[in-house]
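Reopening this ticket.

The earlier resolution said the output was attached, but the attachment link was broken on my side. Pasting everything inline this time so it's all in one place.
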Amino acid sequence: MSNSIEAIKFDICCAARALFRAGLSVGVAGHLSVALGENRMLMNRFGPSFGGLRPADICTFDFQGKVVEHDPSVDPYVNDTIALHAVIHRYNPQIAAVAHTHPPATVTYGTFRRVPEIYDQESCFLAGDMGIVEEDYSGLASSEDRVRPFAEAVGKFAAVILPNHGALTSGPSIQAAMLRMILLEGACQRNISVAIAAQATGLKPHPIKAEDALTAKRELANIPALPAVWKDTLQRLQRTDPDLFEHRPHTVAA
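Inline output:
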């Protein structure tokens, strides 16, 4: 993992394509952003889907959602929903990276206005870190008054469900934000499958106790899971998305 601008752009593209390959994106919706400091962030432009993102599609925005630098080969058109990331980073300077997409199981589970129970070991990674915005869907996340509750929730939880909309995950890197999105979707998938099984069998499901989930989370933190996941992600993308690696900076290690 590198901190150079070109390497971060490449990492954003890899994270986006991994989310696409996992079925966690819809059409051309969704953005991934990495703060560069005060009033600057790297983020994908509106237009390309997660499945085709290239480093040239990553622009520099300010925290008002305006493009301040872009590759001359791309259209820097700004969709109003880009305000989502601008407001989140402005309100949360401690957060480096934010992922927003519309994972199907998370959207489904979000209609119940509940945070998922923890039923499996993988979900323990998110123990105490999952939250939900307690507001009804009222339209696109295109104005500060609509986005402010999202920004406040992201400041409290690393994985946030937006009811009838999608999800936001954050972290110290785009790799961490990506992994948390995958874990959140997995937790919602598990909750839905457990509910179906309970209805079919008449049996009562038993989630992992909160204190035990937090214990597992601390134990899992001793395992270098994120570097291993990222290495595996890059290796799989080299096979499925070789075109992306034509744009790989020399500073990025395998």
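Reporter confirms the inline version is readable. The mean pLDDT is 93. The CA atoms of residues 107 and 141 lie 15 Å apart.
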